[in-house]
Amino acid sequence: MGRREEPAWKRGIVGLSMARERGDIQKQFQHRLTVTRDTIERLGHEATLHGHMGCVNCLEWNKDGSVLASASDDLHIILWDPYRHKKIHKITTGHTGNIFSVKFLTPDILATCAADGMVRARSVSTGTSLLECSCHCGRVKRLATSPENPSISWSAGEDGLILQHDMRLPHRCNADSSNVLVNLLNHMGRYAEAKCVAVNPRRAYQLAVGANDFYVRLYDTRMIKLARLQVSENCQGGGSSSRMMWERQNVRCARAGAGDPDNNVPRAAVHYFAPGHLTMETGEQPFPKKATTYVAFSHDGNELLVNLGSEQVYLYDINSARRPMLVESFIIQHNHGVRDRPRNGHARAATPHATPQAGPASDPPMPDRVKHLKELFLAFQANDHVKNADYEAAIQLYNRAIADCPRCAVLYSNRAAALMRRGWSGDIYAAIQDCYRAIKLDPGHVKSHFRLAKGLMDMKRAREAHECLLYFKDKFPRHSGSHAVFLLQKDINVALEGMEQPHPDEVPEANTKNSGETDESHNTSVLERQLRASALDYSQRFLGHCNTTTDIKEASFLGPNAEYIAAGSDDGCLFIWCRRSGNIVRVLRGDESIVNCVQLHPACFLLATSGIEAAVRLWSPQPEDGNEESRVVEDTLGAAYANQRRMRSDPFEAMLLNISFAGNPDRELQAQACRPS
């Protein structure tokens, strides 16, 4: 089920104020007004909490926000009073490796996981150890807890396992333990790693899992049967921890990629989500390697936010997402009709059932203020930005206009042209989607049809481009003889000829790859390939940050209705985007190196961040007293451009960028380069 449409009287500050006076939605009133555009623009540094001796890898608020827990490479947890900015308690966890996740199971019980492969839980008041699980044989990167049952939690490990932990039952780490919810090795192959896991707050049976690829897996745990650990006899008898770890990992990899032996995870129990341009790439790119670093559900449980390493932040609608499509069905149907016509037939427009028709209210007149915005900002500024090759600024203006007038075909078509020229990761695919939106709103928009074919050719999809250009020439015969159409048709013909007759020098290379090199797709199970082929596409994306150096970088919803999105970056900044437009609205310097963690207080606009520094920073709206925030980054577009360049650079170029930055005395004046933690 999708989002519920609220009555008009509930919308806006006036409606909420009236409802508050009646005393029926006091809590709703408080939450709605915590995160607004005004408070975002006043967001600034409130305090820095010192106490750790290493990188702070995870943050967690308790249920009412009275305590903030932080865990670090120093193997300790610190509990903070966020209002007085004081340390309450410092806890020795017993871990021997960097702590990557901390969770409140109850107000008194904390669970942690770490690089030592352990999952632990202990009482804060008594210090009693309640759980010591060593079932993982690799680093454990993330924990998730059930909102309905605090006794149950899940852990995601780099051994490819998602384990379920029930505090109500006694636990022993042996072959009799039936606590394996998902074994990614069975389907992804021996190199599968689970990076993150999250539980739907409204439907606790839905579990989202991110791995060392760009697919996000959404499981229905009601259909999954817990499996046993695969442990060898040598592991049962004891020995050195490193030897046991090696043996356990090899036992579990024995049948990697062969599928689930007991059908513990049926196909109906899981859906895959992935950016459409990545699922449609012709081949796996060795660099940059994609990995999902964080997944988070919206408050209503209908959307999934994903921070994808070496890529962007993506938003998925888990209820109405559709598979990516480069050539829509109405084009295929029309072209089949064209091919079936008699040779002496006259060209005619597509039949009504084959062409997307604009409904009665599909293209209403724009409000005066949006017309003014389009005429002034777009006609003058955006066009000038495009002429000056400043495509980021032009796209920002188009985003703002589309947010105010989402049913104007011209805006989508113009944004598509700017996206094609900018050429950031996924821009061409996003431009194609914009062309389809414009065509749906205005089937007779000539430029949108032509840009659709051109975008497909830019994606090196010659066959699809040929289909769309054939549709264009038949639908708009007056434009079929233009020079631009002639050049595009020429490029398509050359590409099609090359696909039909490969160059002789390319054949041995292809044969060598098939015989000698490891192709990742051949090492996956049949079910895995089927699920990847049916992966559902994103609904929105947010660009500007850099996520290449660490694999624990988060992304969070801000506000109860997810009006804003926040994420850390490798340049040491905290990025905040407007949900409606996708534009960056605030960039703050949050760390000297990298910001990894971003967690919002459950009741008020108090944001906690951490990263490579041994500190936790708190951010809140500052008073309007005329003082400027010292940590704000004014040139948000410049920061975004620098980050996209880093994510697209090869390893050698990135190393040179880091070296040149490290030796630059004007460090505070420039965007920071990505550095390994």
Write the layout of secondary structure elements.
Blueprint: H1 12-22, H2 26-32, H3 37-41, E1 43-50, E2 56-61, E3 68-72, E4 76-81, E5 86-92, E6 99-106, E7 109-114, E8 119-123, E9 129-133, E10 140-145, E11 152-157, E12 161-166, E13 180-183, H4 185-188, E14 194-199, E15 206-211, E16 216-220, H5 233-236, H6 241-252, E17 270-273, H7 276-279, E18 291-297, E19 303-309, E20 313-317, H8 329-339, H9 368-387, H10 391-404, H11 409-422, H12 427-441, H13 446-458, H14 462-475, H15 483-500, H16 506-515, H17 526-533, E21 540-542, E22 555-558, E23 564-568, E24 573-578, E25 584-589, E26 595-600, E27 607-611, E28 615-621, H18 636-648, H19 651-662
Antiparallel strand pairs: 1-28, 2-3, 3-4, 4-5, 6-7, 7-8, 8-9, 10-11, 11-12, 12-13, 14-15, 15-16, 16-17, 18-19, 19-20, 20-21, 22-23, 23-24, 24-25, 26-27, 27-28
Helix pairs in contact: 1-2, 8-14, 9-10, 10-11, 11-12, 11-13, 12-13, 13-14, 13-15, 14-15
